[in-house]
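Next comes a concrete protein, fold included:
___
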Amino acid sequence: MGRSHTQGPLVRRLRDALGAGYELDFRVGGREVNRGGPPGGPVYTYESQFHDIIPEQRIVYTYEMFAEETRMSVSVATVQFTTTMSRRN
């Protein structure tokens, strides 16, 4: 995937819906960040980095979750896409 998919209509809608705390740079080496929380409460942060993107096949990324400055978790995720054929009688 040669270019970043950060300016399309879906990303603009996500940014509008999630507000100023949302960032997305969807390319290998890029990241996604979402920050927020209740008024006067703790700020929760989701930070991910994309490691492998193969169009129509898979996305591999790592992500961390924070409450304020305290890391709550670190994970590795793989999303694999498959094609299913439906047979009509």
In short: The beta strands are 22-24, 31-36, 44-54, 58-67, 70-80. The helical segments are 9-18. The chain has one helix and five strands.
